[in-house]
Hints:
Layout (H helix, E strand, L loop, with lengths): L2 H12 L14 H13 L2 H16 L1 H7 L4 E2 L9 H19 L3 E6 L26 H16 L5 E5 L4 H10 L8 E5 L2 E3 L1 E2 L6 E3 L2 E2 L1 E3 L5 H7 L2 H7 L4 E6 L10 H9 L4 E7 L9 E5 L2 E5 L6 H4 L12 E10 H6 L12 E5 L3 E2 L5 E2 L6 E5 L12 E5 L2 H4 L12 H18 L16 E3 L7 H10 L10 E3 L1
Parallel strand pairs: 2-3, 2-10, 3-4, 11-19, 20-21
Antiparallel strand pairs: 1-12, 5-9, 6-18, 7-8, 10-14, 11-14, 12-13, 15-18, 16-17
The structure holds uridine 5'-triphosphate.
Amino acid sequence: MNKLQREVFExxxxxxxxxxxxxxxxLNDDERLSLCRQxxxxxxxxxxxxxxxxxxxxKNQEEIFYQGAPFAPADYISLxxxxxxxxxxxxxxxxxxxxLSEGRVAVFTAAGGQGTRLGFEGPKGTFAVTPVxxxxxxxxxxxxxxxxxxxxxxxxxxFIMTSDRNHNEIIEFFGKNGSFGLSNVHFxxxxxxxxxxxxxxxxxxDKWHIAMHPDGHGGAFRAFVASGANTMLEVQGVDxxxxxxxxxxxVPAIDPYFIGFHRKNRSQMSSRMILKNYPEEKVGVFCSAxxxxxxxxxxxxxxxxxxxxxxxxxLCFKTGNAGIHLFERDFFSLMGTExxxxxxxxxxxxxxxxxxxxxxxxxxxxxxxxxxxxxFIFDALEFAEYSIIVEGNRKEIFSPVKNSVGLDSxxxxxxxxxxxxxxxxxAAGSDMPIDAKGLPPFNIEISxxxxxxxxxxxxxxxxxxxxPAISSGSYIE
Length: 477
Ligand code: UTP
């Protein structure tokens, strides 16, 4: 063991984490070097502090919620219901279009997650999601961006946040596909944190690899600043960042309505809200406390509150977080600086973490066996002086692919896409067969290169000289 290695070892020992080096005597020089490098990247003092506070807090989650701030359901801008609100939405749309024409919007996709629930080998963004062409999520987003580039006459920067686990694969995928015709795609890697056992001990993935995981979608802020993206965009006069997550093919990636509301309200961070489908649905809910909006994760919202209804019978906490936000660029970068007053809180979650036992044999647990720490993008809301929440029609903007089967799976997502395309076609006068669930007896697909929402679809469709017949496998581009 050389001097540097001894120092790392002693530091870990001092914090009771010497088990990280349990297999030292079995490792060759390269493996030892690699393990030490990984260990040195961990801020062991901070990790110990986090472990102590969070593991204690986790036990009292519910209690903290009740004892803590007086949470109330958050206010939001609702979908247009009457002539007045329709005018407001139209004004927002026009302002949004103006900002887009001035080239002031960049796109940011959080794609660094591990996608364990989906169980797909490979980065989730490469997952084939569309009903007819089987396009990947990345291709779909690229088409949305190409459509906007053409429409607003300028090139749009697209930042894709990757993690250690999928960075190279994602770059390779874009390389193979010629970046889907886009010229301003940037890959920025988020940070990693070490996983610990329920007793707070750092876990090993194998004898010389520490079990590391991406630091949560809140890692977006730091990754953005560290990559130099902020400086580049500032020079080019781009001041709005449109953020969304990789798993939702319906996302309005570049939405003039939302951008218009964001700017009109001088918002630093705006969020898209969808009504929850049922009380226990696994989405965070927007609440307000002490004059700020905040998101309470579904796992932190006690069931009594989740099911609580007002006298009209609607859920009190009904405003689900769709994971779609707009940020002022300078606020986004402020959140990514090291300043203590802008530090996002860390959240602990029990997860299944592949590891090894004391004899070095692999363990692939069926139940959660360790804890991961993550920061969440929506926690930035508490730091925003001005923020707004804008309702979105769930059927039009939200259908994430989370699980391999059942709710929020590739199958429900395929159905949601087909249902939406059918709705547009019916609105345009098509007499295609539709069942009570709004589904035709076959798959169809409309490319975002043709239109990405009903408004644009109707305009374009009505301009066509000849309308294609709609049948099984119809694809409109
Ligand atoms: P999820 O909470 O669904 O996590 O992330 P996940 O890792 O993708 O999936 P599971 O829980 O392992 O099944 C929501 C979004 O945030 C991104 C994901 O890529 C997804 O777009 N994300 C999550 C990151 O970019 N980095 C992270 O560290 C975590």
